Amino acid sequence: MSENRQLVALGEGVYTVPEAARILRPNMTEDRLRYWLNEGLLGEPVRRGYRGRPHLLSFKQLLRARTIRDLRGKLRFPLQKVRPVIKELSEAAFLSGKEWHALDFVWTPEGEIGVYDGGDYVYEVRTGQLMIPRALLPELQEIAREARKDWVRGEVGIANHPRLVSNARIVAGSPTIRGTRIETSFIAYVVGQFGVEETLKMYPYLDREAVEEAADFEGISFTA
Amino acid sequence: MDENVSGLRLADILNAYGEQYGCTFVTFPAAAHKGAPDEDVPGIARELGATALLSINVTDFGAKEQYFRALVAAGVSVVSLRIRNNDTGDREYITNTLTKHLRKIAKTLNSTEESVVISVDKSRARPASLQEILDKEFF
Questions:
Q1: DSSP strand E in chain B: where?
Q2: Between chains, do B7 and A203 touch, taking CB under 8 Å as contact?
Q3: In chain A, helix, strand, coil percent, each to 5?
Q4: Max Cα separation, chain A?
Q5: Where do the domains of chain B lie?
Q6: Which domain holds residue A80?
Q7: Which tens digit of pLDDT belongs to each residue from A43-84?
Q8: Within-domain flag for A224
Q9: A147 and A169 share a domain?
Q10: Number of structural domains, chain A?
Q11: Rounded distance between C-alpha atoms, residue A117 and residue A122, angstroms
Q12: Cα A189 from chain centroid (whole Å)
């Protein structure tokens, strides 16, 4: 019960599993996120769900889930086989107290993947029997770079919806129209009630594309 | 009214009704504070002389309740109207629900020194202090 009493400070993102899965679409489902959470790949949630109360994830866990998804995609091995490597890679990339901008994936003399923090050795990933092609290294570095960039700005974009973002500092990370505090869920509700044209009159500073993206993201049908 | 609600143009209707309870509804200054971070919301509320933030919530309330807790902890009361799936949810429903409970909302906000959350739905307006929110499963 004590988990329920935790308080998130203003400016910290917090996500339910369905919300995180929607933000990380495509190639992310609620079931997958719950599985990773139960497997310990995402660390301890802000609140572990119970009796109808949802799990709550932090912004860091949202980024971590995206990083794991991308690492898994790049490594191209079944999760069961690659899980230990993903776990180690993601833990190395998300070491607490380390400066993310300095972290980098490298190829170690032993032929393994290592993670460095600007010169001091941090971690050598133990891949065991699993051979990771050296050619993947730039792609892994790109994944880490993206995670670092988004961590620093506290914001993730939403695939196929360039006008939408989840910014940890705006409405606690609820998906919003970029540059505003307007939630996609609310605009989709307004579109559902009044249609796109009326919505544009009510919110004259929003452009049509943003309104339509919000409705599409929330699964609300509309006529152009 | 938060930036979402401000667009619905409810201020005139709510102000006409709220006058008898000493309530004034002001819209979020979206132009001046476009995309303002959450940390700025308490300051913006103070600038406007607002006692509470009116928010309407339509989906996935689990994460939003944490945001409201944080606002209350930062000294801003929150009036949260929650539209559930089986509610009509149109503008008439929103104004009817708010005006129906406005007396209690105004009384609660006027009678307390500390910040509170008032959760509103069609059947009731339920206030809670930060301590009560933390101690109980309020939302």
A1: 52-57, 77-82, 116-120, 125-129
A2: yes
A3: 50, 15, 35
A4: 63
A5: 3-135
A6: 8-162
A7: 889 988 887 788 999 998 999 899 888 888 877 766 666 677
A8: no
A9: no
A10: 2
A11: 6
A12: 24
